[in-house]
Amino acid sequence: MNIGRTNEQLYKKCMLCPRKCGVDRTKSSRGRCGVGAEIRAARAALHMWEEPCISGTRGSGAVFFSGCPLGCIFCQNSAISHENYGFPVTPEELADIFLRLEDEGANNINLVTAVHFTPGVVTALEAARTHGLKIPVVYNSGGYESVSTLRLYEGLVDVYMPDLKYISPGSSYAYSGVGNYFETARLALDEMYRQVGGAEFSDGSGAAEAEIMTRGLLVRHLLLPGQIEDSLEVIAYLHAHFGDDIYISIMNQYTPPQNGSLPPELRRRVTDEEYGRVVSFADKIGVKHGFIQEDGASSDRFVPEFDGTGILPSIPEA
Predict the structure, then answer these.
(1) Global confidence as pTM
(2) Fewest CB within 10 angstroms: 78, 199, 214, 317, which?
């Protein structure tokens, strides 16, 4: 497959993410995301641990990109988000990876934290569609996105799956280094919803427990220990703003990274009482379309091996 060169101009004074660091990533300089203009990824394989309407029984074709503009201090994928572990891949090779994952039975292509490689990823998606890619494309992100960059994906992304991590600017600054997280994320969510609208499923029934989402917005919220009041505000905002047009995933899988540098309040897991309180609140205010996690989700066993699977030819796909 020969798809030509990606648009490098967007990397020369990089404004792809809301950090707007302005670094020329085509040179030796790295952006706030920690990486240059060359696409890097650490894994591309079937992933079984997303929400049921994303993974289903066959798995989601997840491509985990290296680097991250947000850089939350509690990230479970720190090997790729903080340490930028990964391997170079061209847009042409990335398009082939998408097509291979479809051939392996993936329900969708799952772009995990792709914003800082948007020009190359868009080029790869366009090429893959031209060469027959038919499964939905899922844009999986931390929610800290620029509207102008999201618009580059219009018509290419079918399902947006962002986080809405915080409403509190104090928490977002302390844990992700940005005080304007919510103001930025809410505009991003509005743009995502404008592009894809209400949820659609493979048979049109809306039965998320049994079917695969083919279009729509699924917003994740990860509870953090001691931050339950903020979680209640997040759920209340999503339901008041979008109603039953979106799906909300309330996650209790927070696992403290073993790096010894976390503030004291983040060195424990979320309690059953904390999680139960948020789930009960969602039920009380009338959230109908959502997902909750079972006991045992708080474990690093759900973090995949970032070992080049599906990226390096010498490493077999999972």
Answers:
(1) 0.93
(2) 317
